[in-house]
Design goal:
There is one protein chain. By secondary structure, this protein is α/β, with parallel strands linked by helices. The chain is about 35% helix and about 15% strand. It contains ten helices and twelve strands. The protein is globular, with a radius of gyration of 22 Å. The mean pLDDT is about 95. The structure holds pyridoxal-5'-phosphate (PLP).
């Protein structure tokens, strides 16, 4: 009888992948945490109330696998229908499922060399071929570079970690030149003054726009994200989700998410506050000699000719301020700094000045 021999160790059969590395998470309240683009303000009062009055007894039952009530609220908010919305456990999950659902061509998926570092990780995890297209020297995405045979396009807009945002002409150019592939726009930061392509999903059936509750709605700990697009795309996403885990949006997440969307005034007010502090921060940092691209996100991306970004990162860390440094080609002399409260930012500027003085001495 023929026998299939099992050779080698079980270790040889384990996945080999370089995972995404998230920014350092610390609970201590005496650090100023400007490294993961969390919102410095609390979730809306309505969201807080929804959690406080949440009926714990309902947790004994599975949630609605389709997160219908939440999708209705989101559809209303964006002036579309619930059939065109898909919700998930954070936009990272929505993006991962979308990669699996939409990128199944032999042609490479295109995205910038400097962007959300999760994109290549998902491609590797799912065996999707990809090509990274260099940003130009001013860190902008050249739309015309994407006019080539591809198996899909994914763009973070505003881009991370640059903060630079593109408008409707840019997105429409991609959609018109790549009609035969899905274009995914990751709008994790678009609420902070950027352009949202959601209205374009009516006109282009190959467009999927992904949004997050983590940054603009101050609900990173809740894990909630969603996307909007043509019914056929949404249906493919549901097929992938239901082949993986049917219940990705928990009951509390759906409830709190709905309440957050209903608190429009609080939302607008706090976005405006963050944008105001962002403008001031960009000016202050430029005044100190930093190169600061115009940011439309809740962070700034900064570099200084005479300062090592890594050394400044270390100095700030020792002084209880966490910012993000990426040890990657082209951007290893940059720091990404989340916009905190006015007080947080003033402490940051104080410490940067102290560092600069120290080095001059
Ligand atoms: C933070 C972030 C996300 C993911 O957010 P979730 O917390 O998973 O909703 C997605 N894309 C970009 C570019 C991000 O910065």
């Amino acid at each position: 009888m023929a026998e299939t021999k099992h050779t080698g160790s079980w270790r040889d059969n384990l996945v080999r992948i370089d995972p995404y590395v998230a920014g350092e998470q610390r609970e201590s309240s005496d650090v100023i945490k400007l490294n993961t683009n969390e919102n410095p303000y609390p979730p809306s009062p309505g969201a807080a109330l929804a959690l406080r009055i949440f009926d714990v007894a309902t947790l004994r039952r599975y949630p609605d696998a389709g997160a219908g009530a939440l999708r209705e609220v989101l559809a209303d908010y964006h002036g579309t229908s619930a059939e065109r919305i898909f919700a998930g456990n954070g936009s990272d999950e929505v993006l991962a499922l979308a990669f699996r659902a939409c990128f199944n061509s032999d042609l490479p998926v295109l995205f910038p060399d400097i962007t959300y570092s999760f994109f290549p990780v998902w491609c590797n995890l799912f065996g999707i071929p990809f090509e990274q297209i260099p940003l130009n020297d001013s860190l902008r995405i050249g739309a015309y570079e994407y006019d080539r045979p591809n198996g899909g396009i994914v763009i973070a807009n505003p881009n991370a970690p640059t903060g630079i945002g593109e408008g409707p002409e840019f997105i429409e150019y991609l959609l018109k030149t790549s009609k035969d592939s899905v274009v995914i726009i990751d709008e994790a930061y678009s609420d902070f003054g950027g352009y949202s392509a959601i209205p374009l999903t009516d006109k282009y059936e190959n467009l999927l726009v992904v949004k997050s509750f983590s940054k603009s709605r101050a609900l990173a700990g809740l894990r909630l994200g969603y996307c909007c697009g043509n019914e056929t795309l949404i249906s493919a996403l549901n097929d992938v989700k239901n082949s993986f885990n049917s219940y990705t949006v928990s009951r509390p997440a759906a409830e709190v998410g709905r309440a957050s969307v209903a608190d429009e005034e609080y939302f607008r007010e706090h976005l405006a506050k963050t944008m105001r502090i962002r403008y001031k921060s960009m000016n202050t940092l430029r005044g100190m000699g930093f190169f600061v691209p115009e940011s439309l996100a809740n962070f700034v991306f900064i570099s200084h000719e005479d300062i090592s970004a890594f050394d400044l990162y270390g100095f700030l860390r020792e002084n209880g301020i966490l910012v993000r440094h990426f040890d990657k080609p082209r951007i290893d002399n940059f720091l990404r700094i989340s916009i905190g409260t006015e007080e947080d930012m003033n402490k940051l500027f104080e410490k940067i000045l102290e560092y600069m003085d120290m080095r001059r001495a």
